């Protein structure tokens, strides 16, 4: 099951990673629904198999919903020396574990985006 990939902004790295809105509903379906505003610790494995714990917060206001990773995510981003322009891939595996992969900005180009699209990542950003 695929969720999203995202090109990171400085806010994503320094404060919190905002989950793309078009991927939020799919992620929420895999987690316990507490209704309204709530947070849940989400165990996530990186490419090396190391487990991280990201605080995943959901906020509902009026007709909009927002979701983001905060605590744990910032530590992960710092440990990887992530920068604005780098890309993360976040998904749930068939064994029900969550996985995150990173690509530094020098490692991707349009072919990577086309591959992600073929793999049905929900949030696709166009190449120029």
Please give a structural write-up.
- With 128 residues, the protein is α+β, with helices and mostly antiparallel strands.
- 23% of the residues lie in helices and 35% in strands.
- The protein is built from 4 helices and 7 strands.
- The protein has a 7-stranded mixed beta sheet with strand order 1-6-7-3-4-5-2.
- The longest helix is centred in the N-terminal third of the chain and has 9 residues.
Which keywords apply here?
about 25% helix, alpha+beta, globular, 4 helices, 7 strands, single chain
Shape: globular
Estimated radius of gyration: 14 Å
Q: Give the termini separation.
A: 27 Å
What's the total count of β strands?
A: 7
Strand order of the largest sheet: 1-6-7-3-4-5-2
- SSE sequence, one letter per element: EHEHEEEHEEH
Detail the poorly predicted runs: 117-128
Calculate the mean pLDDT score and round it.
Answer: 78
Specify the helix fraction band.
10-25%
Provide a count of the helices: 4
Describe the largest sheet: 7 strands, mixed
Summing up helix and strand content along with how strands pair, one would put the structural category as alpha+beta
Describe the protein's topology:
Blueprint: E1 2-7, H1 10-14, E2 17-18, H2 21-29, E3 38-45, E4 51-61, E5 64-69, H3 73-79, E6 87-92, E7 98-103, H4 110-118
Parallel strand pairs: 3-7
Antiparallel strand pairs: 1-6, 2-5, 3-4, 4-5, 6-7
Concise overview:
This protein has helices at 10-14, 21-29, 73-79, 110-118; strands at 2-7, 17-18, 38-45, 51-61, 64-69, 87-92, 98-103.
């Amino acid at each position: 099951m695929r969720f999203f990939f995202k090109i990171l902004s400085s806010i994503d790295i320094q404060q919190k990673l905002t989950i793309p809105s078009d991927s939020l509903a799919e992620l929420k379906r895999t987690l316990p629904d507490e209704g309204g505003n709530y947070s849940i610790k989400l165990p996530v494995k990186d490419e090396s198999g190391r487990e991280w714990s990201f605080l995943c917060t959901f906020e509902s206001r009026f007709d909009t919903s927002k979701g983001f990773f905060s605590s744990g995510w910032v530590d992960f981003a710092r440990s990887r020396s992530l920068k604005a322009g780098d890309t993360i891939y976040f998904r749930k595996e068939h064994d029900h574990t969550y996985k995150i992969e990173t690509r530094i900005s020098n490692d991707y180009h349009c072919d990577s985006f086309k591959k992600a699209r073929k793999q049905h990542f929900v949030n696709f950003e166009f190449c120029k």
